[in-house]
Every structure is written in C-alpha cells, then in structure tokens.
Amino acid sequence: MKESTMEYPRPHFDRSHAWASLNGDWDFRADTERDYTRTITVPFAWETPASGIEAHWLPLAWYRRTFTVPDGWAGQRVVLQFGAVHHEATVWVNGVEVVSHRGGYTPFEADITDALKEGEQEVVVRVSAPLDKREIAHGKQRSVPRDDFDGVCFTPSSGIWQSVWLEARPATYVAGLKLRPSQALDAIEVEARVSGDTDATLTLALRGTDVSVEVPVVDGRAEAVLPVAEPRLWSPEDPHLYYVDATLTSADGTDTVAAYTGLRRIEVIGEDLYLNGRRLFVRGVLDQGYWPRTGITPPDDAALRRDIELAAAAGYNLVRKHLKLEDPRFVHHADVLGMLVWAEPAATGRFSADSVAAFEEQIAPMVERDGNSPAIIIWGLYNEEWGLDWDIPGDPAKQRATAQAYDLLKALDASRPAVDNSGWTHVKTDLLDWHYYDESAASWGRTVAALLNGEQDDFPVKLGPDFVVRKKLAGHPDQPLRGLPNLNSEYGTGFTSVERGWQLRWQTQELRRHDRVAGYVYTELYDIEHEMAGLLDFERRPKDLAGVNPADVNATTTLVLDVVPVAPGRDLLSDSREVSVPVRVSHHGTEPVNGHLRTAWTPVFGAAPAAFDADGPWIEAKPFLLSGAAEVRAELPAGWTSGRLHVALVSDGAVIARSALDVDTHTGPVIGDDR
C-alpha cells in the first residue's frame, strides 16, 4: 500500500492525535467497466500520470479500498474525511450510504461509526465529473462544450484530488473553532461550535502560556477572549503564530482540537492598504496551483513550500491563488513562511440560477476552512465576469449576483477586504482592481496614468483574436471609481521569455511610478501546459529573461527611469554615444532612503555588473512618495554602438536598488513602436 507523503491534511483544525491516512492505492473502475481491474493512487486526479490511470474525459468512476479502525479508537465515533473530490461524490461504507456531497473544491465528512463491522471495513466512492462544467465550479479545468475562456484553461482534474483520512472523536465534539485577533491586537477572540446531545464545558488554553479559560457551551456555542501578554504581531518579516488548544469535556468523553492564528490587522484606509498600522504595498504574483505530473494536487508538502519560496525569492510578498481553493496545507505554509495570500473560489462558466448557487456554495466552506489564517489578507470572488457571461453592466440580475456574493462573504468575515469581480466592472468591492494587458510599453504607461489620475475609467480588453472591448472599472452606478485602493491585479505580456522579462521590468516600473497604486499581481509565477506566461517553466526552472532579475524589479526600493522604452534590446535610441536619463526612486520601506546613483556598462542583455563607476548624483526618497528626478549621464565605451547601462542606488556602500537601460545608436525604425 502506497502512502502519501503529505502531512496531516487540516492544520487549521488539528486532530492529528487521532487520525489515519487513507491515501495510497485504491481499486478503480470506470462506470462502464464491471470489475475493479485497475489501481489508482489517491489523492491524484484520474487524468494525471501520478494517479496511474491517465483517463481523460471520463464522466463517472468508482473507487474502492479496505481499511481497519485503529484499536485505540474503541468507544469513539469514527469519521471519514475528504479534503476535496471533483465534482459529486457518493460514499458507502460496508454497503451503507454514509454521505453525498456536491462541489469539487470543498471538504466534507461522514460519521461512519454505525456502518462499521468487526475487522476489515470497505469504503466505496462513486464520483461524477461532468464533461460539461459550465454551470459548476471548475476554475481553470476544461469543459466540453467549451467555456468562453477555454484558451486559458487546462486539463481537467477529476475524482479524489485531496487527502482522505479517518479521525476519531466523541459523540459530543468541537465542530468548529474560529480564531480572530482582537482589534487592539492584544488578544485572540475565540468562537467555538459544539455538536452533540449532552452538556459540555470547553477549556481554551493559549499554548506556551498560563492563559486558560473555562467557558460553558450554550446552544452549541462558546465564546472567549484569550489575552496575549507582550503581543508579537504576525507579518511577512516575523510570521509568529499563536496556538489555541481546545478541550471539550462532556458525558461522552473528552475531545481535543488545536488551531492557530496570528495577531495581525489588514485595513483599507482611503486608497491605501495597511498591515498592523503600517502602509502595505502588495507585490503579488499569480499562482494557479498546477504541477506537471500531479495536476491540481501538489506532489508533496515540499512542493507547496518551494512555490512560496520561489515567489519570495523573486521579490513578491503576496501570492494570488487563482480560481482555486488550494489544498489547506498551502495556506499553512504561507502562514509559517510569512507569505501574504489572496484566496478565492473556483469559477463557473455560464450565468444561471444553478451556476450562481454552485459558486456561492463555496463561500462559507472557504471562510470556515481558511479563515483563521493570518496570511490571507484578501478574499476574491468572481473573476473577470466568468460565470456572469462577461456582461455585468448589461444585466441587473448579474449585478445582484455579484453584490450578493460580496454580502455573503462579508457577513462571514468582515475582517479582510473582499473583491467582488476581479478585473473590471465592480459592483460592490473593497478594492478597485483591474486586469490590463498591453504589448506596447508606450500605451501601457499612458493608460495606467489615465486610470489613476481620473482621465479615463475604462481600458481595452482583448476577448478574442479580433475582438477587443472597453471594460469600465465600475459596472454599477453606485460603485465609486475613486477613494478605494487601486491594484493592477493581472498584467504581463510578451510572446518570448525575452519579451516577458522586458515587459516585467518596464510595466512594473510604471506601476511604481504612481503613488496612488496600492499594489500589483504579475501573471504569473510559472508556465502551465500550453500557457507560457511564467517567470519559471512548468518544472519551476528559471527562464531566460534577458538579464532581468525579478527580485530587482519587485524590491522594496526600486528605480524609475523617465524613459518610454522602444523594444527589447533597444530601450533608448540615441544618435550619439552620450546619454542622459532622469532617474527617480520608489521606496516602500518604513524609513527614508538616500544615496548616490552609480552606473556601469555591459553588453545588451548582459548580467548585472560586479562593480559600478564612481558616485553620480545624490538622490533621496521618502516612503511611498516617488522622489524627484536626478539626471544620470553616461557615455558608451569606445567602439560600442550599443550597450546596457546599469543604474544602481548605492547607500553606505551597499546597492539598495537597481535597473538597466539598453541603449542603441542604430536609430532606424522599430516595428510595432507606436509612440
């Protein structure tokens, strides 16, 4: 029997003292087959090589395996847990139906105690994975018939794709444990849900301290406040976690559960985001949660940690998990490693009463499962009107559905900002985000400036090869266009990796030029199947970005060059070897910075130099205020007709910011230049 290398599957609601994994080999058959002649490895979707099946467009299949209940669980209720099964599952234990669940991204459970017998047990799972996914939550999985957004979708991921396991608990037990930091960040507020038929008392203890309270359970609820002496706030720089141990005592026995959170506060104040009272600039990257041989299931815990570490190494402080409720262990690793997270449910593909219901069914489980996470600072909902037929402005029913999703979410968790429809046509939102893709550096810069200074409230969106529409920031007259934080939450263009590196540098620079921007999310961290938009390839290997280092582009302190670049390798066309470039500083630290601007030449696309020339002009920058310009002058080395001019901000001998400019003295026309 193969066993998964994943650790305990539910770290935010931990009963790992009494669990047994059911991952590994299960018997498998398609619905059209009479006998279980194949073996599938759980928890990998049946389309994936890791599953051992690699069956595509299979709409219905069956799983079967045997198990034994651990001897030490006598007298306890035995519960079968599923992390996620796409899309609809019916479960039998020893021939008794124990649960049916719909929704491919949300967890479910079944108390199987009354179906158990002596000795070996049998569990059977029937999974329906419709080929036509348009009215169900399916995210980036392909559908037949196709979605309108099929070109950016991937291989479906059907069947059991998250862990399966057993847990033991008394008949009266802790059903939920909600932890939130107090407003003053000096205590943890606890709300517990209790299920059972007997009176019970709940003891809550702050691990590692002498703080412990005993509270009665009234109508299945118990609340308490656990004070924290000398609070240590959670932040990306110091991701400190506080663990709460819950012990429920009743006539049915003792139930123990552990959970954790962090003391942190995320706020929207005017057009800015604040984390723990400090202004926050979001430097985010899109992560869609796919792996080469395992599909939407991470191959192991190390893969989840590695993706977070790769994002951090590229200078990002936030990961947007796109159109997918990721395995909860990803959120756990983000909590531990200090990576901020934008979390959102999977999209549907067509607008109908059923698709709206399917989308909304994910909201409460999302908040219940992941709401204790300090890393999650933004909740997303709809994306680019997917599941709303790309027509919020033209249909009041779609406007109501968008606002309703926002209201449902905020009723469950008002402590985080929420985005109603990421990308455009907002109806009711806490953040004014927009998705803007443009191959032209010149029109990119103009459009970003016009959106931010109020000259325009719409921008072009390419929905097909020859189909471009203009999308407004707001899709309802009651949604303000100003006064909320602005985020460009998808951007990044270029057909080749050289072009993508070039656009990453210059487009991100233009976002850093504007102090009114609260952050950005680059698309994306790694390639997926046919989609080659990543900084890394699908195997998470670095790509040739033509000498552009994402860590420099996304640094806390960056340089902004007053140049409209022409093309990769030819940023600035000059009729002489002498160039003059105005340089500014964008700084998002807590204290001002200053230093000298210094330069060095390498060949075009050359790597960053080891040393720079003598001190150039002095420049200073205050936090979150673009500095004035300092003029940098340089001359191409003798005999060179082109070269890369590296510019660095050096303070006390250390390079704290850098950029580069490719200069070309061959000043002929450049195809595609629309300046």
UniProtKB/TrEMBL annotation:
Molecular function GO terms recorded: hydrolase activity, hydrolyzing O-glycosyl compounds
The protein's name: Glycosyl hydrolase family 2
A single BP term in Gene Ontology: carbohydrate metabolic process
PANTHER family, A to Z: BETA-GALACTOSIDASE (PTHR42732), HYDROLASE (PTHR42732:SF3)
InterPro entries: Beta-gal/glucu_dom_sf (IPR036156), Galactose-bd-like_sf (IPR008979), GH (IPR017853), GH2_Domain-Containing (IPR051913), Glyco_hydro_2_cat (IPR006103), Glyco_hydro_2_N (IPR006104), Ig-like_fold (IPR013783), Ig-like_GH2 (IPR006102)
Organism whose genome encodes this protein: [Actinomadura] parvosata subsp. kistnae
Domain Glycoside hydrolase family 2 catalytic: 266-419
Span of domain Glycoside hydrolase family 2 immunoglobulin-like beta-sandwich: 177-264
SUPFAM superfamilies: (Trans)glycosidases, beta-Galactosidase/glucuronidase domain, Galactose-binding domain-like
Key words, A-Z: Glycosidase, Hydrolase
Residue ranges annotated for the Glycosyl hydrolases family 2 sugar binding domain, each copy included: 40-132
Family (UniProt): Belongs to the glycosyl hydrolase 2 family.
